[in-house]
Each structure stands twice: as structure tokens, then as C-alpha cells.
Known about the structure:
With about 190 residues, the protein is an all-alpha fold. The chain contains seven helices and no strands.
Amino acid sequence: MSDDADNLLHGPLFTEMDDSAARFDEWSYPKGILRDGMVALDENKRGLADQYFDAAEAVVQLVNDNQVADYTVSSPILYLYRHSFELYLKSLIEATGGKPGREHDLAKLLAMAPVLPDWLRNRILELHAVDPRSTHLRYGDETGQFPGPEGWAEMNFLRDAMRALRDHFVDLIERMRLNAPASVARGGMS
């Protein structure tokens, strides 16, 4: 076995970050994964939500570029979007002084959230129906029952709807953090 093959099998996945990881910008090489350390994830749920959202967007782009078949990544795409909105909800709740804890039920998180437009609540409840306990999209059918009604969403419509939802959440979170009145955003997409 070569030294490279042996390192792939037995070497550590993560090492200390040193000058070999330095790069000019996010598009330069080397590419890598930074594990915790630099950002306390509990203190930055909004940033973590953005990461899950961006990952969903990247997988949707792979589908649109015909690099992967849509049906082979449907559950991961839905999970990434669903989890991003769980984290956006938690960030919003925390921005208003609430404590969402480790709750994964989107309906229960909605009950903790400040007043939100009906269209936003309805979208979150649609995601909730797909996976109420945040287990189905991760582990598959363990109960013998599928959680939500069967359905189909056109990929780009889903992506665009998720973008509109995200934009509204980000705006609300920032308004709450700045103590701006939430009533400004109650009526629609502004």
C-alpha cells in the first residue's frame, strides 16, 4: 500500500489549521472544511442557517446543470431547506428574547415566534408537514407511515419560493435585532 493510500485509510480527517490552508479568497485553493473553533455555532444560528440554505441551493444547481438526477437528491434538498428554516426560526425567536432550546418541531417553533405574515406561517407549515419531527428526511421511513401528503414541486419553483421565504426571514431577524417594529413586515413581502 502506498503512503498516500495508507494516509487515506489511517490519517486524521482534521488537523490543526496552519499556513498550508491559507488562500487569497474563498475561490482560491486549497479548498477545505473548517470544523467549529472559529465560530461558536450556538451563538450564530443565522450563519448556520445560511450554510444549510446555501448547501440546498448548491444541490439544486447540480440538478439544474444535469450533474445529478433530481430524484436521487430530493430528500437531501428538502432536509437542507427544512433545517435552514428551523434555524432561521430559532434565530428569530432568540432575536426577540425567546429561548427555542433544542425544539425541532416547526409548528411548535412557530408558536414561539413573533407575529408573522400568514403566507410565511403557511410555507413553514408546508415544510413541517413533510417532516414534522425532523427525522423522516434524515432516517427514512422508520415508522411504516409517511408523515405528509404525497406531492411534487417543480425544482425552480421550490428554489424560488425558498429564496422568498429566506429573504423575508433575514429581513425580520435583522429588524428584530435592531428593535425595529415587526408590524412593518406583517402585511406582505416587504
